[in-house]
Each structure stands twice: as structure tokens, then as C-alpha cells.
Specification:
A six-stranded mixed sheet has the order 6-7-8-3-9-10, with helices on both faces. It has a four-stranded antiparallel sheet with strand order 2-1-4-5, covered by helices on one side. With 281 residues, it is α/β, with parallel strands linked by helices. Helix 6 links the parallel strand 7 and strand 8. Helix 3 crosses helix 4. The two termini are 29 Å apart. The chain is built from ten helices and 13 strands. Helices cover 35% and strands 25% of the residues.
């Protein structure tokens, strides 16, 4: 289990992360959602121990990561947004090299990771010749080399084509079935729909929501308001997608309003994220 309590990171006077708190139960997949510059990568780097917090507490399975750094880091596999791979190496040689420097038996670990990450077709190719999708898979295999209980993945599907993205998300679901706990950041909201149990939404360094995916979608349920839904009395309420409670608020405040038609739809996470980016939090 990961516990984050009042975690902050300041760069000079800039608060990249501002007293955020959330938890991730064992065996869950949690998506960290938010715009560029929200503090997602900074948060993940602090959880992995690569970045020292300004203040706050991080616990891995109940142990303070600052006081038990080596023990906690052994439980974590980390893949940054652009996996730092050696392009001139053959995939098989690279994974065997990683196994050796981590004290693992290459003959045992590499075939297992090859199967888990779907690398069979490229094991004898140079990493520099791989598509981005396969490079991400190699990076994931690296992160899994020490069989960590927790995976921290920064924008793992960024830049992937739809097929490669689906394949990688299927790998995540398989790893969850094996008992792994996964925290990954993304801008691709369909990733969350497919595999995230919970969503933690971060903006301007603060946590805005941290709850189950279905609860998040229901909480910010949207109404699609047809352009002919209102009489001219509600000029301020233009047609389009918005939160249902915002629409109803306008109706209540307009004494002479006549409602012609309101249709509610199941909002996608993309609709919700676009809406949240346009409102004051």
C-alpha cells in the first residue's frame, strides 16, 4: 500500500506540489490525471525516492520511505516517461545486462519478462530500431526486473498508436491479476476507462479528487444541453456539455425560464477533464 500525507515540493517560491494526500490500496491500478505542469511527475519522483520532498510523508507498506529508503525502493519498479534505454544494444543483451546489475539470474528472469511484456518478436533487434511501443515494453520489462510489488509509470502510453496502447494496457491488467500495485500518469483518458480502479486528479499541485473511477464519472456527470433547450431568458446558458448541477443552477435562478429539452448522457472522462480545466477549482 502507498500512503501520501501532506506531501509538498517547492522549487524556490514555486509550489510544484502543495500538501497533497492520497492512498493506493495493494493490488489496485490508480491513474494520476491532470494537465501539463500539474505536478504529476514530481509526485511520482518523490514516491520513488528520486526526489526529496520539501515536506510531508510517504509510506510504502506502512514504512516511511525516508527512514527505510533501501527497503522501500526494492519494492518499487519505476519507468519514466522516456525510458532510458541503450539504443545500440540488442533487447536480449540489454535485459540480461539489467538482470546482472540487479543481482538476478538472466536465464530465469529474461524469458519470463519476454513473455509478460510481449517482446518475443523483437528480442534480437537493436533497441534503436524498435517502435516507441516496443521501447516502452522494454522499459516496462526493466522496471519489472526485480519483481517489484509496486509499479510507478510516468506517461507509459504517451505517443503510442491505438493498438500499441491497448496491448500495453492489457499488460497492466495482467500484472494487476498477479497482485501488482500500479500508479500511472496519463493524458489519455481512455486509458483510465480501460484499466484504472481509482482516479487521482491533480491540478496546480493540489489534489482535486481521489476516488473510484465510476464515482468520479458520476460525481461530475454532464448534461448535454441542446441549443434550442431554453427560451431567450437564459442567454447565459449556451448549448454544449456542462455539469448537470450547473445547468440546474441556471434554471433555478431564472424565474421566467422555459425549459424545452434537456438530454443527459454518460460523459466520457475526456469530456469531464476538458470541463474541469475550464472551471475555477
Amino acid at each position: 500500500m502507498i500512503e501520501v500525507c501532506k506531501l509538498s515540493k517547492h522549487f524556490g517560491s514555486f509550489k510544484a506540489v502543495d500538501e497533497i494526500s492520497f492512498s493506493i490500496p495493494t493490488g489496485q491500478i490508480v491513474g494520476l490525471l491532470g494537465p501539463n505542469g500539474a505536478g504529476k511527475s514530481t509526485t511520482m519522483r518523490m514516491i520513488t525516492g528520486f526526489l526529496q520532498p520539501t515536506s510531508g510523508l510517504i509510506k510504502i507498506d506502512g514504512k516511511n520511505i525516508e527512514e527505510n529508503a533501501v527497503e522501500c525502493k526494492k519494492k518499487i519498479g519505476y519507468m519514466p516517461e522516456s525510458a532510458p534505454l541503450y539504443g545500440e544494444m540488442i533487447v536480449d543483451d540489454y535485459l540480461r545486462y539489467v538482470a546482472q546489475i540487479q543481482g538476478q539470474n538472466p536465464d530465469e528472469k529474461v524469458p519470463v519478462l519476454c513473455r509478460e511484456c510481449g517482446l518475443k518478436e523483437v528480442m534480437h533487434k537493436n533497441i534503436s530500431d524498435l517502435s516507441r511501443g516496443y521501447r516502452q515494453r522494454v522499459g516496462l520489462a526493466h522496471a519489472l526486473m526485480n519483481d517489484p510489488e509496486i509499479l510507478i509509470l510516468d506517461e507509459p502510453t504517451s505517443g503510442l498508436d491505438p493498438v500499441s496502447r491497448e496491448d500495453l494496457l492489457d499488460v497492466f491488467l495482467s500484472l494487476k491479476d498477479d497482485g501488482k500495485t500500479i500508479l500511472f500518469s496519463t493524458h489519455v483518458t481512455s486509458d483510465l476507462d480501460k484499466c484504472a480502479d481509482d482516479i487521482t486528479y491533480i491540478r496546480n499541485g493540489k489534489i482535486f479528487a481521489s476516488e473510484p473511477t465510476d464515482t468520479f464519472k458520476e460525481k461530475y456527470k454532464l448534461a448535454f444541453v441542446k441549443k434550442d433547450a431554453f427560451t431567450d431568458d437564459i442567454a447565459a446558458c449556451s448549448h454544449g456539455v456542462r455539469r448537470l448541477k450547473d445547468v440546474l443552477s441556471v434554471l433555478i435562478s431564472a424565474d421566467k425560464a422555459a425549459v424545452l429539452n434537456i438530454e443527459t448522457t454518460d460523459a466520457s472522462l475526456e469530456d469531464i477533464m476538458v470541463h474541469l480545466e475550464k472551471v475555477e477549482l
